[in-house]
Amino acid sequence: MSVLAAVAARLPGVSRVLTGKNHELLKFATVGAITFVIDNAVWYLLKLTVLEDHPTTAKGVGILVATIASYVLNREWSFRTRGGRERPHEAALFFLVSAAALVVNVTPLYVSRYVLGLHRPHVDLFTQEVADFFSGSVLGVGLAMVWRFWAFRRWVFPEDVSESPTGVPRP
Fold it and tell me: Which residue range or ranges hold the GtrA/DPMS transmembrane domain (predicted)?
């Protein structure tokens, strides 16, 4: 029995039904929480040290590191029962979807910094950091999360892959 199933068995009725119906979403959200911490740790480490003048680049690097962790965790846990694609094909699709998500994720940060001018010397350090966190880690991550969950279920880890990439039915 999985840990999630054991927890769900102890939950009251409505919670148990919600957990059962949305187990993939809950696992995906857990992976998202873990990779959120990885992304932000790398982002702030780089942003406050070697990439101080390039916060968007630092955010991109944080996202890339978190994406690698995300693939392993989503493949082996969140969407373990889905798929049927060969791993190289699946990984290519995963990283293609994640590349699009990276653009979605950094766009609010870019707009905040370079369109709205929410950076020093135009605003104080506190305002800059709050704007960076909200645009890069709240708004950007939220938009990218919605995109990833939909795209992963649709293309990367589909419910059933009954045909090969060449259109020939799988045995």
Answer: 27-157
Dihedral angle, C-alpha 111, 74, 153, 17, nearest 10 °: -110
Query: Which pair of structure tokens corresponds to residue 117?
Result: 């001018």
Residue 123's alpha-carbon distances to 113, 114, 126, in angstroms, are 10, 13, 8
Q: Cα torsion for 75, 142, 129, 47, to the nearest 10°?
A: 30
On the question of pLDDT at 97 being above 70, the answer is yes
CA neighbor of 56 nearest in space, from 99, 98, 105: 105
Tell me the Cα Rg of the chain.
Answer: 19
Residue 39 exposed, middle or buried by CB count within 10 Å (0-12, 13-18, 19+): buried
For the full predicted model, state whether its pTM sits above 0.70. Answer: yes
Q: What is the pLDDT of residues 53-79, one digit of tens each?
A: 899 899 999 989 999 999 999 888 888
| Confidence check: pLDDT of 161 > 80 | no
State the Cα–Cα distance between residues 21 and 23, nearest whole angstrom: 6
